[in-house]
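Margin note from the TA: students keep mixing up input and output lines. Inputs are the sequences; the output is the structure of the whole complex. Example:
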Amino acid sequence: MRRLRFLIQKEFIQIFRNKALLPMMTLLPIIQLIILSNAASNEVKDVRIAVVDHDQSEISRALSNKIMANDRFSLLAAPFNKKEALDLMQLDEVDIVLEVPPDFEKQLYRGEAPQLQTLVNAINGQQATVGSGYLNGIIATLNKEIRRNEPLFFSGLPKHNEPVVVTSNNWYNPELDYPHFMAPGILAELTALLTIVLTAMNTVREREIGTIEQINVTPIKKWEFILGKLVPFLCLGLVLLTVGLIASKLIFDIPIRGNIGLIFAYAVVNLICVLGFGLLISNFAETQQQAIFVAFFFVLIFVLMCGLFTPIDSMPKWAQYATIPNPLAHFISVSRKVLLKGSGLADIKMEFVYTFILALLFNAAAVWSYKKQE
Amino acid sequence: MKAISIQNISKSYKDTKALDCVSLEVGRGQLFGLIGPDGAGKSTLFRILTTLLLADEGEAFVDGLHIEKDYREIRKRVGYMPGRFSLYQDLSVEENLSFFATIFGTTIDENYDLIKDIYVQIEPFKKRLAGKLSGGMKQKLALSCALIHKPSVLFLDEPTTGVDAVSRKEFWDMLKSLKEKNIAILVSTPYMDEATLCDKIALIQEGKILKIDEPEAMMAQFERPLFAVKTNSTYQLLNHLRLQSFTHSVLPFGECLHLVTTETLSPESIQEQLRLQGFIDVVVSKIRAGIEDVFLDLSHKAGNHA
């Protein structure tokens, strides 16, 4: 035990002596939190639209006005033919072209259900779907208003049944505050990432400098060596999490609805898991460069498939299964559930179980592959 | 019981044979030198003996313990100083030393008298980071760390490579005093001049042991006449001598040439002969063979057999 204590102590001395590490642990997460939470937004704020009005009627102008009145849209042009509008789209000047057919108003009053055409530039998928969604909303409202305001014209027509009215309410994040949604996820992501990279690099450094050679010719046992690395970096990860939590509370005022102790309890399991992964990488790398590249490869996959930027539910089935061995996905899920929703232990027990199994697997593999090196 | 006993150890890396049937023995309190050029297999042998690497064939015992079966016990009893400086550069001198003392379950105070002679020289810098020490001081610290747990066998892999001449001499003096404490020392070096400082040496090349003997005996056994030839036009003379019938071998040695002849000749007669052929400023003197001459002669023979 004395030996292990000394190994851990040595590691801490080295960590505190490393001038790059401390700013990395404090400043970097805060900067990333601020930038990512604000920037990584799915909101579509400015949709540029061109309206080709072949009808030039009262109703078609009302439609144009409505679009202009909406602050999410900016009406860029009102060309007289479709070709002109399509040229604008080709030049990437507009995102959506709305075409109003001739006799639109006439057909409407006749009850013939005229058709509007929207052409959406789908290069940016997000912009396209969200933008045309907004537009459909505007058209639907207009439709309703016409019917309400001019009951005489429509009285003779077969009465449309009032469509089912859906009212929605955003729970857990009522104002759809983007940072509230992103910050807990980014916090989890940062903690996991930095610890993976740092452990992978640290252990390889011992190999690079040759100290591992010296250590191997001592009575230090494998588990002592691995634990001697795990414990200090676990502490480091928890410090990082604390710094991040305080920063997101102060800057974004994120809600902390659940038990903060639960977050930390889960973080311990998750950090042991990712640390094991970092050690595993380091066992197969000869230099810090190699370790970084391998870590990067996995980190990219972990980040893009963890549900931070794209919801896991909208991934294809196989990809959804692929998130099970992704410790980041569980961490993000837990941190969102506990912070935003106030979930208790029972709600996150599956995440606990998966992460625990992963932690066992990664660490067993790390110890096993370290053995193989001798 | 010998401190180190190696029997027919072989080790290959893919197609290259790093060690080929190496056998040798080191007694207690003996300073044993492993002399050979870079790539001769010295470090591989060290790594096998310090249980870092498994041999393909053969057996070896360190302090009476089998290198494979008793590797745990061996690790408690040997001190190892790798060829490359392998201490924590971001820890101070004192922190490094107490770290290695602790992982061996001892303290600096307990074995202070063993490292005292060496450690006093770096003690004034004990708060300095190991990475900021000079080459010579690094070696002293590494030796202190390898000694702190009172090992019975010490493995020093090229301890003087990259160290200045004064520090090298000091280092060898330290080894001499350690040997008196009954510690067996296996030391490797590519410097032939350090060979004479050992009790016994093994010449190694391309994984094969060429010869094992005491350095004095080895030099005395050099059978052929040997001459040092000094001239201003070394290169032309070298080419010229190579073609002579009496030449067994001729090789450049610093500023002169070492000429081994097949027959007994007097230096005057060689000098005369060369003068007749146009080499006017030649000085020839008969010399005693050094370890390097022995090594080159032996490796020449080994090369011819191959």
